[in-house]
Design goal:
Elements (H helix, E strand, L loop, with lengths): L21 E5 L6 H14 L4 E3 L17 H14 L3 E4 L3 H9 L4 E4 L1 H4 L2 H11 L6 E4 L6 H13 L5 E5 L17 H9 L5 E3 L1 H5 L2 H13 L4 E5 L17 H10 L9 H43 L6 H17 L4 H30 L1
Parallel strand pairs: 1-2, 1-8, 2-3, 3-4, 4-5, 5-6, 6-7, 7-8
Helix pairs in contact: 1-2, 3-5, 5-6, 11-13, 12-13
The protein binds phosphoenolpyruvate and manganese (II) ion.
The site of manganese (II) ion has 4 residues, from loops.
């Protein structure tokens, strides 16, 4: 493996040491001047944080929860910048926030997950930011739609804001366990495919939702070659006024950064490709066989559909489906495979099989009519 360090995709005028990830860190919310200063001093002393984050206005799911210290918080952040020397980034959710943020000379702003979902809000924010050259981060929308994420970035770009980055903070899911938000990493690959030069940071705090998982999510982000991390840090996490379960102490954060292994993108792509080619050839052969098997399966499904139709049976038979799933899951477990993987695979196979049979029924009916 060559020793070439990771090339940082540019964002703002800050950059980490070669080979280190980009780091944005700070409390979920700015709660008091003391809390802001204590956190910032610890991060400054550690030296690996490029931008200090803090929520000034907090978008809370239910009214009555702590909604941020607002204008006071902005003043604390300005004091922090003068006294501690870290640039700061805050969330803006509407044009008034933008006006305040620009007046306070915020070093960067982010658009939150609850805002990215709404093109009207994003457009208003983009218009309010127009004319400033401020760096802007866009969090993924709450639901898993890369189009909305890209759309928000495009709205900002059209207003002349060219210093952009994305933040991946996971997606709403009914059962995201063990996480608070489902990472759906594949959506970051799609964003990267569409905008290769855009830095993509991961926010493991909002994905994990609990302290003990923040490190492993951070490591996955690095292993997938994301550009950096946005992490919530609080001097007394249990007493935090928002997101208490997921914030880390500065000491735990420093230990996390010490342990983080970073080795992706350091290797020469040509050498990687040569060394992996024989395993990849074998996978290609297996995949080609899978497609042939799927085709063979489909022929049998078609025969079956015609037989069912002759017998007057319905396309879908619950007992048979549950039985089949059961058999495949226990086979998977015996072979040491994750039964959920095999279950998801057969749910897809079955969905297409049912669709195909329903189409055959319809065609047959049309012919008979
Ligand atoms: C936050 O970063 O504190 C926040 C509110 O994030 P999100 O928009 O990702 O929920
Ligand atoms: Mn938070």
């Amino acid at each position: 493996m060559s020793a070439a360090a990771r090339r940082h995709r540019p964002f703002g005028h800050w950059s980490p040491e070669p080979g280190q990830p980009w780091v944005i860190a700070g409390p979920c919310s700015a709660e008091s001047l003391d809390q802001v200063l204590e956190t910032a001093r610890a991060l400054k002393a550690d030296g690996r944080t490029q931008l200090f984050r803090a929520g000034v206005w907090k978008p809370r799911t239910r009214p009555g929860a702590f909604e941020g210290a607002g204008y006071n918080a902005l003043e604390w952040l300005q004091i922090m910048r003068t006294e501690v020397g870290l640039p700061f980034v805050i969330e803006v959710g509407n044009p008034q926030h933008v006006e305040r943020a620009l007046a306070a000379k915020a070093d960067a702003v982010w658009v939150g997950a609850r805002t990215t979902v709404n093109p009207f809000y994003v457009q208003e924010i983009a218009e309010a930011l127009k004319g400033s050259q401020i760096p802007v981060l866009v969090k993924n929308p709450i639901h898993a739609d890369v189009g909305l994420w890209l759309g928000a970035l495009e709205r900002l770009d059209k207003m002349g804001l060219s210093d952009l980055a994305a933040v991946h903070r996971g997606f709403f899911a009914t059962h995201p366990e063990p996480y608070r938000n489902d990472p759906r990493w594949e959506l970051t690959f799609e964003l990267r495919r569409q905008v290769p030069d855009l830095p993509i940071f991961c926010d493991p705090s909002h994905i994990a939702g609990q302290r003990d998982l923040v490190e492993s999510v951070s490591q996955i982000a690095m292993d997938l070659a994301l550009d950096g991390l946005m992490i919530e840090i609080h001097p007394q996490p249990d007493e935090a006024l928002s997101d208490a379960t997921q914030q880390l102490t500065p000491a735990r954060f420093a230990a996390l950064l010490d342990r983080l292994a970073r080795y992706l993108e350091h290797a020469d792509p040509g050498a990687v490709s040569t060394r992996l080619s024989s395993d990849r050839d074998q996978l290609d052969q297996i995949d080609a066989q899978l497609v042939e098997l799927i085709q063979h399966r489909q022929e049998i499904v078609e025969r079956l559909a015609h037989r069912k139709l002759e017998l007057g049976a319905s396309v879908f038979q619950m007992d048979r489906w549950l039985d089949m799933l059961d058999q495949r899951e226990s086979q998977a477990a015996k072979l040491g495979l994750d039964p959920n993987y095999v279950k998801a695979f057969f749910e897809l196979v079955h969905r297409y099989s049912v669709q195909h049979q329903a189409a055959i029924y319809q065609e047959q009916r049309r012919e008979e009519a």
